[in-house]
UniProtKB/TrEMBL annotation:
Organism of derivation: Enhydrobacter aerosaccus
Top-level taxon in the UniProt lineage: Bacteria
Entry keyword set: CBS domain
Pfam families per the UniProt record, alphabetical: BON, CBS
SUPFAM superfamilies: CBS-domain pair
Family matches, as PANTHER family: CBS DOMAIN-CONTAINING PROTEIN CBSX3, MITOCHONDRIAL, REGULATORY PROTEIN
Residue ranges occupied by any BON domain in the UniProt entry: 156-224
Region forming the signal peptide: none
InterPro entries, sorted: BON_dom, CBS_dom, CBS_dom_sf, Diverse_CBS-Domain, Transpt-assoc_nodulatn_dom_bac, UCP036990_CBS_BON
Protein name as annotated: BON domain-containing protein
Residues of the CBS domain: 7-66, 94-150
Amino acid sequence: MRAKDVMTIGVVSVLADASVFDAAEILTSEHVSALPVIDDKGRVIGIVSEADLIRRAEIETAPHKSWLHRWLDDDVTKAADYVRSHSRRVRDVMTKNVVTVEEGATLGEIAELMAKHGIKRVPVVQDGVMVGIVSRANLLQALMSREPDGGGSRPSDAQLRRDVADAVSKHGWSSAWPTNIVVSNGVVHLWGFVQSDAVRNAYRVAAENVPGVKSVKNHMRTVPPSVNMGV
């Protein structure tokens, strides 16, 4: 799936020359935590979030630095801090380094960008103009759309046994000790010995992901690494 498949369109935005009061009103009325900031041509030039607006001189929440920080800060830093807490224009308080993607970006690429930059949403642009936005919520919606519906014909128990065995054998963590898979009416029973709880859980997850499996009963037992079992 790609950005164009999951993005929210008709996204509420704010102009760079709007006031911080306008931005705050939009954030509260639309129940969102951040707004893309656009210029008069619709190009994304920033993001303004709740975090950008809560440290304000008007409500006496502007940052109060210790005497040491005030002494270490140069005039440029002091001036920038003053602008962010006192300016009434969105362009002065917004985050300017905006991470954007194009419509063809994969969900994997988007998730990677979110993790790398510590952000919750990514504007989607086409020729520089915003056409939508992908948020963490959109990724969760994409995940829910892939939930198995349980429809269609179910494979036979014999086929499920082969499919589960194939699914497990593809991974390097599969146990070198004796294991067995028994399937009855779509319920998979896992038996045998594994080297850790992590491997035991991995067996269960691999089986659960095989199409047609109703549920998994994990009877596997963990054995300390020091134990050398004969086969």
